[in-house]
Specification:
5-stranded mixed β-sheet; 15 strands; binds D-MYO-inositol-1-phosphate; Fructose-1,6-Bisphosphatase, Chain A, domain 1; 7 helices; binds calcium ion; globular; alpha+beta; 34% helix; 24% strand
């Protein structure tokens, strides 16, 4: 068994959180301004898994800013050329635009997600987010969290406030988010799990950004969320925001099944989703996934 990665000091955690907010905010402004060509630059795991020019530009900006502020840290970003090994104990896990399809269609539910993690984000189960920010520039929302520091949201130019999950205690009355990955087999599997789950809840939302889904569980605008096939950059910052806000969530962030929920329905939601999974024929991991 490997030792758990060392936790940064309280001062360093504050610095990491401040830096996450500042680079995600700057990248969010760039993404929102949409300067220059907005087209699709390439596709990744499937024809619908797109990279916009702005994904690449935003990742470059974030990487440059982080390297200037903390040159020894590692980097693990969603887009090509996005990895550098850490010489310090910290690696930045970055999704320059989470909700890229929404961005392409000018639907405002997209976000820049920046997280500082300890451990190696390319090795499932060996890493842990310690500070992070999720900035939705078209929504005017900024979420931040660091380990032990609670979770906060700022809307527009308004004051920042501490957030907490909903008080929902009935799964039948819960609004639950989910997503479907880009892998065709995983999408079919996700739809089958949804057929089993939907009759047992108030309704489902497919918002299109896992980072925002997790932040919405954190502030009570969703009661729960589950998805399979996420990559570390989709969930690292949002998972920390959700858990620091007081949501219950899967203990180690993983692509196998990510879930987060208000404490009053967490146990039941996890049980219902796992039971649904048990009734649906299994599929393997998507080829693009870095987790097992
Ligand atoms: C996607 C979004 C979506 C989720 C997919 C992710 P991207 O990220 O988070 O909500 O369902 O699994 O890949 O491609 O927009 O960065
Ligand atoms: Ca993403």
């Amino acid at each position: 068994m490997t030792d758990a990665p060392a936790m940064p000091s309280p001062e360093e955690l504050r610095e990491l959180e401040r830096l996450a907010v500042s680079v995600a905010t700057e990248a969010g402004r760039l993404v929102l301004d949409r300067p220059g060509d907005l087209g699709v630059a390439s596709t990744k795991s499937s024809g619908t898994d797109i990279v916009t020019v702005m994904d690449e530009r935003a990742q470059d900006l974030i990487r440059t800013r982080l390297a200037a502020a903390r040159p020894a840290d590692g980097f693990h970003g969603e887009e090509v050329g996005g990895s550098a090994r850490a010489e310090s104990s910290i690696t930045w896990v970055v999704d320059p635009i989470d909700g890229t399809v929404n961005y392409l269609y000018d639907i405002p539910a997209y976000a820049v997600s920046v997280a500082a993690v300890v451990g190696d984000p390319t090795v499932p189960g060996s890493w842990h987010p310690v500070a992070g920010a999720v900035v939705g520039p078209a929504l005017g929302e900024t979420y931040r969290a660091r380990v032990g520091g609670g979770a906060f949201r700022r809307r527009g130019q308004g004051p920042e406030s501490a957030i907490a999950p909903s008080g929902c205690t009935s799964l039948a009355l819960s609004l639950v988010g989910t997503g479907f990955s880009y892998d065709a087999a995983l999408r079919r599997w996700g739809a089958q799990v949804l057929v089993e789950t939907l009759p047992l809840i108030r309704d489902i939302r497919r918002i299109g950004s896992a980072a925002l889904d997790l932040c919405h569980v954190a502030d009570g605008s969703l009661d729960g969320y589950y998805e399979r096939g996420l990559n570390p950059w989709d969930l690292a910052a949002g998972w920390l925001v959700a858990t620091e806000a007081g949501a219950r969530a899967i203990e180690v962030p993983t692509s196998e099944l990510t879930w987060a929920a208000a404490p009053g329905i967490a146990e039941e939601l996890e049980r219902v989703v796992r039971a649904a999974i048990g009734r649906v024929p299994a599929v393997g991991q998507p080829s693009g996934s870095t987790e097992g």
